[in-house]
Each structure stands twice: as C-alpha cells, then as structure tokens.
Amino acid sequence: MNIALPAEGTDLSPYLPDEHGLFFIYHFKADGSRTADPAEAHWSWRSYQITDMRARHEIGAETALPAPVRDAFLSPSHGCQIDFEDDFLYGDLPDLRHDFAEARGLTHFRFAFNDKMLVGARKQPLESVDKIRKLVESGTRKFRTPAELIEAVMGQSLDGMAAELDKMGDTLDGIEDRIVCDAWHNERQALVDARRQLVLIHRQMATLTSLFRHLDHSHRNELPDPINDMATRLSHRAHTLHHDSEQLQARTRLLQDELMAKLTEQSNQLLYILSVMTAVLLPTTIISGLFGMNVGGLPLVDTPHGFWVVTAISVVIAGIVYKIVRRLGRV
Q1: FRET label pair with 298: which of 7, 137, 290, 322, CA 20 to 30 Å apart?
Q2: What does the alpha-carbon distance between residue 254 and residue 172 come to, in Å, rounded to a whole number?
Q3: Edge-to-edge strand order for the sheet containing 81-85?
Q4: CB distance 321 to 313 below 8 Å
Q5: Helix (H) / strand (E) containing 119
Q6: Kind of pairing between the strands at 106-113 and 22-28
Q7: How far is residue 27's CA from residue 39's CA, in Å, rounded to a whole number?
Q8: How far is CA 219 from the centre of its chain?
Q9: Among 324, 331, 177, 183, CA closest to 269
Q10: Model-level pTM greater than 0.70?
Q11: Cα separation, 17 vs 13, whole angstroms
C-alpha cells in the first residue's frame, strides 16, 4: 500500500481494529509459509473493519486496487456479488457470524485479490475467516496464493452451512417423530424457525451458484486457470448445498401440510363435539324455556314430583337426540 502500515507481529488484534481500521496483516512467502519480513513476502493478506471510516480511507487510498474495485469495495452491500477486473477478483460472499456475535446467522465478507495481495473486510466477526486466520497463526496450513486462501475461507463457509443444514435435518427428524406420535402441539413455531433458516441458506446457495456461473460466462477468457478452477469447485459445492437445502425445504413444507391436516382434524373434532352438545342440550333448553314462562296453566306446577318428571323427560329426549346424532355422524 502507499500508506505505512504496521508490520506483522505488532499489537494488532483480530477482533479490535487499530488506528487504520486494520484487524491484522499477514505476509506469505512463495511456498505459502508466513514471514514477518515484508521484503520476503510474495503476497500479503489484510483484513479491515469495513464500517470504520479510517479503514475506508485506507482502502480508498490504495492505488494498487483498480478504481472499479475500490468503488465496489466501499459501496453499500446489497448481497452477494463477484466480478473480475484488471486481474483482481472481488466481491461479497456469504459467511456465518461467529458464535460469540450478538446473533447467529448469515452475513457477508468482502474481498479483493490478485496474485500479490488480498484485501478483506467485514462488519461482524465471521466464523470462517477466523478459522482460517487461526490456521495461519498456528502454521497448520500454508497458502501459496490469495486464491487458495479465499477458497479455504469459502470452503469453511460452505462447511458451516452444510453443518447448519445437518442441524436442520436433525431438527426436522425430531419434529417428524413428534408429529407421527401425535405429540405435535408445540411444533408450529419450531417449523417456522427451521423454514426461515432454510430459506436464508437456500437463497444464498442459489445466488452463489448463479454468481459463479455468471463469472464463468462473462470472463471465461480472462480468468487465470487457478481462479477458474477455484470457481468451478466452489460452484459445484454450492450447487450441492443448494440441492440439499431444496430437499429440506420440501420436507418442511410436507411437515407443515401434515401439521395443518392434524390441526384441521382436531378442529373438526372439536366442532363435532360442540355440535353434538348443542343438539343434545337443545331439547332441554326448549323444555326449560317453556316451564320458565310466567303464565298460568303450566302442567305439573302443583305436582310434588313435577321437577323430577320434567328432568326425566329432558334426559330421555337428550338421550334419543344423542343416539340420532351419533348414527348420523357415523361415529
């Protein structure tokens, strides 16, 4: 960069940006190993807090980035995108928020790289980026090119989404078991939550598949072979997850339909019971209404057992009505 940045090994935090809005900077040799000496570096990786104005100023002043790349990097995020310009591959790709973030869910990481540098940025802590950063810190993995690192980040992101889909599958298994066993009374909200999460993942995977396909069609003759191979592999994985999420979505719809059928059946049963009760109590209501009139000539008024006679008549009529209703209802 044309602005002095702290060398690797200074007190940079992967979670708190410094005075440049920078989280960390790593330098890599040609064999993919880390080096603390920028003069030995074959390429470098920098990560910024994109909402920090200092970071935006640093990125905007980076003359190594083509103007379209800088503009795209600093523009408001409108979802996933990927493009190729002047040997730079850049865009926004999905990732999972870290476990310690305020809310678990999907967000995006922004990047731009060529064969000499990788510039990354984020708003919230990202799970995949942090996992790759830890691998770099520990020396567990070596990255010879920025393309390898971006593929590793996206691979971790897709692995995380695959794990989320597995969790959704286990959740649906439990919901299905409870529906089959008629213990489904608290499953409506669980199904709604599962379907909302599946819609988000499915939408991201569909977008990723479309983005990589568009990248291949638009820049087929411009993309270097390593980037083209990377895009092909990631596209295949995204397509697989897209298919898996479609299957889980279809399953949630079937479970919702089955749950609604059981709710309808329960409602019909309750309505039938209410109808039977109404029919059984109707003769008793009519009789009590007749004997409750304040007029002369009411029968059994002076009879000592009049109340019990009327009660017996009401019970007999209610029993007859109940048998008729049961026979008509075929229950």
Answers
A1: 322
A2: 11
A3: 34-35, 22-28, 43-49, 117-122, 106-113, 88-96, 81-85
A4: no
A5: strand 117-122
A6: unpaired
A7: 9
A8: 31
A9: 331
A10: yes
A11: 7
